[in-house]
Amino acid sequence: MSYAEQALDQLEKGQLDDFKKAYNSALRHDDDETLFSLAEELYGLGFLNQSRRIYEKLLKQYPDEDELRTNLADIAIDEDKTDVALDYLNQIKPESTAYVQALLVSADLYQTQGLFEVSQQKLLEAQDIAPEEPVITFALAELYFNMREFNRAVPLYLDLIKSGVTNLSRVNLVERLGVSYAEAGRFEQAIGYLEQIHEGDMTPDVQFELGFTYLQLEDFERAAKVLGALQESDSQYSSLYPYLGMALEQLNQLDEALKMVQVGLGVDQYNEKLWRQAAHLATRVSDESLAETYLKKATELDPDDLTAALELSNLYVKQGRWQETIDLLLADTASDDLDPQFFWNLATAYTHEEQYEQAAKYYDEARPYFMDQPDFLKPAIYFYREMGQTDVVRELLSRYVQLVPDDEEMQYMWEAYEN
C-alpha cells in the first residue's frame, strides 16, 4: 500500500493524526502519478491545503503541465483568492492542451463575480475550439439559466438530452429543461419534462415549479395537490403560499385558501402582497374586519403600496366611511401612476361629505376612464345635474342609455334632456 493509499485510509477511519503522517510520507516518497491522484481525491474531499501543496510540488517539477495550473486555479477560486486564480489561468496560452479547461475555469470565476458577459465570452471561445464538447454546452446552459435567460438555456439543455446526456455534474438536465420552459412561460412544454422527474429526485424548487406550472395551465386541482404536498414537507418554503392560495380559491375552497395564506404570513410576515391576498380572501369569506386589518398591515409595511391603499379605500367606500376614505387617499394623489379608481373613490367620498367643489375636481379626473361603466355614470349624472353642468349630463346620459337601455328612469331623463 502506498503512503497515499494509507493517508486516504486513515482519513476514512477519521484518524487525522495518522493521516498527516501518511500524507507527509507520500509527499516525500510516492511517485508523481500517485501524488497527482492523491491531490484529486483530497480536493474532492475538501482538503484544499493538502491538495494545493501537492499540485505546487508537481508544478515545480513539470512547469509545462498546464493542467496543474487549472487545478490550482480551481483551488484558489474555492478559497476566494481571485487574483491568484487569474494569475495561474493567464499563464496558459491558446496553444496549450489545457487552454479549453482554462477557459471553463475562467468562465466559472467570472460568473461567481457576477461578470456574466465576460463569462459568456470565455465559454463561446471554448465552444469555437471544441464545439462538440458537452461540458461546454452544459456550462453555457447553466450560465444562461443563472442569468435567467431561459429561452437561451432551453435549446442547449435540449441538445444535451437528445445526445443522451441527462445528468452532468450532479445536475438533472431533464429537471433543468422543465424549469427553464416554465420560467420562460412555455408551460405546455414544461409540464412534459417536469412530470418525468421521479418523486425521489423532486427537489422543493422543482416541486414548486411543477405546482406553479399546473396553476398556469389552470389545472387547479393538481396545482393544489402538488403545492399542498410541498407545504407539508417544507412549510418554510415561503414562495408556495400565494400560489397555493390561488389554486384553492379557484377550487372555491375559500376557508382553506385563507388558512394557507395565513400560514404563509407566519413564514413571510414582511410580504405586503401576501397581506393583500389575505385581505382579498377575508373579503370573500365576508370578514371585512379581518380584511381591513390585513390591508392596514400591508400599507404599514409599504407606505408606497398604492394597491393596498386603493383596496382599503374600496372597503371604506363600501362601508360609507367617507372621511377615512379622504384621509387615506389624499396622501397618494401626488403620485404620477394612480389608478383612476382613486379619483372615483374621492369623488364619491367628497360628495357624501357635501364638499362639492372637491367632488367635482375628482369626478372630472375620473370621468375619461369610466365612460363604459354604468356604476360610475349613474351617480356622476346625478352629481353633474345638481351642479348644473347640462352639457356633461347630456354626454353621460347618452353613453349610459346605450349601455343600459332598459333603465326606464335614465331613458326618461335622457328624453327630457333631448327635448
From TrEMBL:
Please give the PROSITE patterns that the UniProt record associates with this protein.
TPR
Q: Whereabouts are the TPR repeats?
A: 272-305
- Which UniProt keyword terms apply here? Repeat, TPR repeat
Give the superkingdom in one word: Bacteria
Q: Which PANTHER family match?
A: TPR REPEAT-CONTAINING PROTEIN PA4667, TPR REPEAT-CONTAINING PROTEIN YPIA
What is the official name of this protein in its record?
Answer: Uncharacterized protein
Q: Which organism is it from?
A: Levilactobacillus bambusae
